[in-house]
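[Meeting: bench + compute handoff]

Bench side (C.D.) handed over the final construct sequence. Compute side (W.E.) agreed to return the predicted structure before the next meeting so the bench team could plan truncations. Sequence as handed over:
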Amino acid sequence: MISPRQKTLRELRDYLMIAIGMVLYATGWTVFLLPNDITTGGVPGIASIVYFATGFPVQYTYFAINCFLLMLSIYILGWKFSIKTVYAVITLTLLTSLIQELTAGIHLLKEQPFMACVIGASFCGGGVGLAFSYNGSTGGTDIIAAIINKYRDITLGRVILICDLIIISSSYFALLDWEKVVYGYVTLYICSFVIDQVVNSARQSVQFFIISQKYEEIGRKINQYPDRGVTIIHASGFYTGREVKMLFVLAKKRESPIIFRLIKDVDPNAFVSQSEVIGVYGEGFDRIK
């Protein structure tokens, strides 16, 4: 059982990491994207379009639209997720205002919009991915993505990519410049890619099926280092009808070279199958959220 102190520390860590994620997002959005008239996706994208068309501050539009979406979040995803989303939305709203004031008059990469697009999208994607990794969200289409991800096995980045295409395309009516719209598409793709990398980086695991006459020695070595559990599966060859012992091993992706080296040292002729798995939960791997 997790002690109350551990639960408190875990919650505090979540809020701290969400805040860091919002710093990254606010920096990418207000320092690199907005000054170069590049639209991002989601509610920030809508706020950007309103800003380009009217000059109305992005933080107010962003906050107003999220009020409605947060009601939906509370109803479907529950208070725990939504409270952290409210925290993230308020934090991002305040940080956006603060960073705009601190960087007033500064226009980075003015003549290099593509670089501004790449750097800004990387910051935004990293911020959103960090927030998702610690049970938070920046609101907007992130909420929609989290709702769909709750019921369907679709990556968060893919859902956000689909939801945001219309918003990016709509920026043409405010900017009247297809080049900027294309930069918006590039921003969306990079942002989605970085989100998936950040969210899934800690969950990259692999599974091995190993068939060898020396299965006991291989199993013992894997048990010792990299200290992974080994399951023996009783199988038989269809063609030969011979009974064989097959080892089943789950490990982190970074441990793959170690396991291959152990197998080769014991039995270079072993039959080995390796494949990636989306996620492994339990002792020695990720915890179930």
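W.E. noted at the follow-up: The chain has a mean pLDDT of 83. C.D. will use this when planning the next construct.
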